[in-house]
């Protein structure tokens, strides 16, 4: 049992997003303890299941009402646990593939659009104000800009230096400092350190933020936070990547 759990824990992404890092990803490891031995459960099927559950959550948000909101909050977490499971299973079973990674990331982007688009509509239905819709659109647009700027920069840098993607992977390698085999103090220090990631306001934060807003029926305040944070991070990340492109032309990457 311990050996299998250790192997599964090793599949956890070392630089997970906030909330994913210490909640949904560990829960995914526990779920995978049984799932990896089920022949018909494949990473791609889990990716598809995650997206279908995310779609059901979006429908629940649109329908509205306390019961549907709470159900949607639960479904959002289930979707994200499944989203963590597919990559872990692929790494554990050594069946990772570029196609699987592509569709996993693609569905991640789409489900964020669905969730917050649905939240904007639900808040509009409650308030009869168009402001929540505008906030949702702003947040979705600038969240998408974060990813778009990243891949445009990657394309430009790779055209200049074909080794650039590999160089970036080596620079971003994260040392394992917690988990199974580490003591209580090391894990507690890691846990406290992870809390800083909340300020990144990325997908891991969305899971917590949106589900909490649904449970407490506070969609409009949540959408203000969503729009403001993505406006800041989308603009800042885009400017920073452009700045780095200029600077990388002047210096060689470390080997």
| % residues in beta strands | under 5%
Which word captures the global form? globular
Percentage of helical residues? over 70%
What value does the average pLDDT take? 90
CATH fold node name: Four Helix Bundle (Hemerythrin (Met), subunit A)
| Class based on secondary structure composition and strand pairing | mainly alpha
Given this structure, which CATH class is correct?
Mainly Alpha
Low-confidence segments, given as residue ranges, are: none
Distance between the termini: 40 Å
Instruction: Provide a count of the helices.
Output: 10
Domain tally: 1
Which quaternary structure do these chains form?
single chain
Q: For the report, how would you describe the main beta sheet?
A: none
* Global Rg: 19 Å
Order of helices and strands: HHHHHHHHHH
CATH superfamily name?
CDP-alcohol phosphotransferase transmembrane (TM) domain
CATH-derived architecture: Up-down Bundle
Number of strands: 0
């Amino acid at each position: 049992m311990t050996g299998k759990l250790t192997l599964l824990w090793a599949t956890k992404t070392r630089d997970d997003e906030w909330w994913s890092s210490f909640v949904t990803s560990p829960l995914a490891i526990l779920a995978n303890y049984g799932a990896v031995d089920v022949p018909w459960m494949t990473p791609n099927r889990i990716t598809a299941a995650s997206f279908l559950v995310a779609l059901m959550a979006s429908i629940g948000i649109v329908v509205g009402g306390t019961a549907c909101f709470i159900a949607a909050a639960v479904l959002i977490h289930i979707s994200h646990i499944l989203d963590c499971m597919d990559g872990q299973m692929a790494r554990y079973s050594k069946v990772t593939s570029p196609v699987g990674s592509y569709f996993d990331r693609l569905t991640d982007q789409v489900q964020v659009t669905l969730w917050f688009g649905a939240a904007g509509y639900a808040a509009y239905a409650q308030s009869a104000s168009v402001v929540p819709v505008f906030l949702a659109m702003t947040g979705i647009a600038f969240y998408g800009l974060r990813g778009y700027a990243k891949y445009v920069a990657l394309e430009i840098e790779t055209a200049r230096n074909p080794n650039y993607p590999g160089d970036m992977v080596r620079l971003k390698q994260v040392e394992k400092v917690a988990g199974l085999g580490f003591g209580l103090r090391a894990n507690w220090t890691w846990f406290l350190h992870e809390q800083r990631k909340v300020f990144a306001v990325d997908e891991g934060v969305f899971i917590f933020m949106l589900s909490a807003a649904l449970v407490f029926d506070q969609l409009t305040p949540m959408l203000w936070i969503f729009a403001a944070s993505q406006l800041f991070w989308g603009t800042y990340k885009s400017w920073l990547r452009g700045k780095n492109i200029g600077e990388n032309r002047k210096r060689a990457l470390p080997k």
